[in-house]
Amino acid sequence: MEHKTLKTLEYDKILNMLAAFAKNEDTKRKIQELVPSEDFRIVEQTLLETDAAVTLILKYGTPDMLRICNIKEQMKRLQIGGSLNMAELLNLARILKNARTLKRLTWEQTGILCGYIEELVPEKAVEDRITSAILSEEEMADDASPELYRIRRKAKNAASRIRETLDSMIHSGYYQKFLQDPIVTMRNNRYVVPVKAEHRADVKGIAHDMSASGGTVFIEPEGVVNANNELHELEVREKAEIERILMEISQAAAEIAPELELNFDTLIHLDFVFAKAHLALDMKAVCPQLNREGRVNIRKGRHPLIDRKKIVPISVRLGEEFDSLIVTGPNTGGKTVVLKTIGLFCLMTQSGLHIPAAEDSIMPVFTDVFADIGDEQSIEQSLSTFSSHMKNIVRIVSRARENCLVLFDELGAGTDPVEGAALAESILEHIRAAGAETVATTHYSELKLYALSTPGVENASCEFDVETLSPTYRLLIGVPGKSNAFAISERLGLPKEIIDRSRQRLSEENLQFEDILTSIEKNRQTTERESQETIRLRQEVEVLRQQLEQEREKIEKQKDKIYDRAREKAEKIIERAQRETDAMLEEAKAARKAKDEQEQLRAMEEIRRQLGLKRKKNKSPKVRTAVQAKPAGVNINTLKLGASVMINDLGDKGSVLSVNKKENTAVVQVGIMKITAKADNLTLLEEEEGVRPKTEPPRRSQTGLRRGEVKAEVDLRGMMLEEALMQTDKFLDESSMAGLHTVSIIHGKGTGTLRAGVQNMLRRHPQVKSFRLGKYGEGEDGVTIVELK
């Protein structure tokens, strides 16, 4: 790119804006050297880098990067075995810390910048050695080395002894009359006291300095000379140790010199990329879409150097239906701003910068951009002058070629209008023949007609409000503009007869052309007003539609609320009815249970009565004696589980299932019934063959098992399901072989898992005919009664 073009389009001011966002001086120097690239791939790469940095900042914030200084000279010194000072080493530590900080970013965060992040080489050991040893650019830590710590401790003690000696001296009544002030100060790095000049001989020691007036002599008392000498020696040793530590750290840095240089270059580039991202965010810019066909399509572009509160966005296209654009309109109407916006956007794009425009803006990569714009005064001051630079035009014409952009401001102006128009038309033809794209501003009607009659050339105009005599700065593509000289002059008060004579001097063709332009402008304004009215009506319809939609949603929400309230009310009614039903069922169950208990009590009383009659008929003298003898009951504390007992009032035998010492009761299994009896109603039976009456031995089943040898129940409580199923299967087989018809499986209530597992097994067991849960008195849900085949 030509330097003149960069200056004409004020590219340097964009670089200054960009440099303000850089953190490092090397980055700012790099920015000032930035020039637009002609390589499509480089432009594409740099734009993607800027876009990735913008995304990173928006999502995660700006990475925390410390300011760093150039290390090129330091690296040369390290390569020849030199030593760096504390400030230079701290700069290396900052470089390593920046590398380590950026290295934490993941690939998803950095996108196309991932390659640069991967290049960074953090060296935590060297970084920690520097930061732990060096506190600031002029101070080293006491614990930078054990030797430095010992030296500084000794120096501190020596200084403390010197001050104690001098403090006692200046507070002494003898010396106070000799001293100018009772203070201790330093001269030539040695502790001294200020002595009056006339008492110089009264204070023995070494004089190191004298005040400007000569009235005070600074004397080092001989009592502290040796201590000062020791302190000075320690200072020399301290300095030597610091130099040794710096050399040691410098040697460690020299070992990673290539990594440090790579880190520095990468960090400067990343700082440069993030500066471009910050500029894009500040300008509310977007990444343009690139193309290789020379197409320009700027949508709502805003010149970055014009006050953002005053700028009017423009939309302009070039290189699609036409390759040349003729922009007309009155002075100060914004024609020069259009030229500079197009040219500057091209330079910014090819420098990897985002452009302040709307999304989907399209920019090409030109080989060169040429500009001849007025006297190049700043548009920031709203100044726009128009003078011809034929020398500049000659240079442009000689260099214009394919894939170039040429910008002309007031082409052909400053000379005879007829000759100037003809010359301008010829220049445009030559530029087009060379294959370059052109945007030119003019007041010549001939160029407007040229654009109307030439394929590939299009008119454009900067809109001007004649009523207010002010430009709107809107660019209208396809509409030739008017200079509006007559209208502006008439509005400003020029006599009408002068204006009429001026019109008469115009040729008939010019008048017809101006009338056509006026008619086109009126039609355009009418169409635009109708279009705006249509847009307004469409917006009103859209607002009404949204309001209706909101009302509909509101009604739907209210309907949903009504349904919800009705549903809640119904659920409450159902819940209340359910509670009432449950209560009634509980009451019915309790009544039935009470009735069943009464029936069972009556049945038990009947059984007792029948048993009593039976015993009266069949009892032997031995048993009668036992019955007539009043049983004394059993001791509940000695009663064991499984013991055989007699229930005295029933006369039935059974085995003890459980004992409740607190209530003095026991649960006794009598056949398939479980009876709770008081301990004093039980008699413990002894299993002695001598007293057992002779009866017929129990019959054996076909398998050889006796019924008495197999219990009619099994207790599974406390077992795991698998163990319980094995025990149940064994129990059922033995019960079947023993000829039992009904057995009980005690599984307890609990969570119901054991009961469900057992009953699933019973459904498939070949020995089981049927099964049911126990009834009242049989254990209820905690027992399953099984009928065997």
UniProtKB/TrEMBL annotation:
Acts as a ribosome collision sensor, splitting the ribosome into its 2 subunits. Detects stalled/collided 70S ribosomes which it binds and splits by an ATP-hydrolysis driven conformational change. Acts upstream of the ribosome quality control system (RQC), a ribosome-associated complex that mediates the extraction of incompletely synthesized nascent chains from stalled ribosomes and their subsequent degradation. Probably generates substrates for RQC. Endonuclease that is involved in the suppression of homologous recombination and thus may have a key role in the control of bacterial genetic diversity. ATP binds at G329, P330, N331, T332, G333, G334, K335, T336. Residues 503-614 form a coiled coil. It is an enzyme of class 3 (hydrolase). SMART domains: MUTSac, MUTSd, SMR. GO terms for molecular function: ATP binding; ATP hydrolysis activity; ATP-dependent DNA damage sensor activity; endonuclease activity; mismatched DNA binding; ribosomal large subunit binding; rRNA binding. Homodimer. Binds to stalled ribosomes, contacting rRNA. Its EC number is 3.1.-.-, 3.6.4.-. It comes from Ructibacterium gallinarum. CDD domains: ABC_MutS2 (cd03280), ATP-synt_Fo_b (cd06503). The lineage of its organism: Bacteria, Bacillati, Bacillota, Clostridia, Eubacteriales. Transmembrane segments: none annotated. InterPro entries: DNA_mismatch_repair_MutS_C (IPR000432), DNA_mismatch_repair_MutS_core (IPR007696), DNA_mismatch_repair_MutS_sf (IPR036187), MSSS (IPR046893), MutS (IPR045076), MutS2 (IPR005747), P-loop_NTPase (IPR027417), Smr_dom (IPR002625). The keyword DNA-binding applies. This is Endonuclease MutS2. It comes from the Bacteria. Belongs to the DNA mismatch repair MutS family. MutS2 subfamily. Pfam families: MSSS, MutS_V, Smr. Residues 714-789 form the Smr domain. One of its GO terms (biological process) is rescue of stalled ribosome. Keywords: ATP-binding, Coiled coil, DNA-binding, Endonuclease, Hydrolase, Nuclease, Nucleotide-binding, RNA-binding, rRNA-binding.
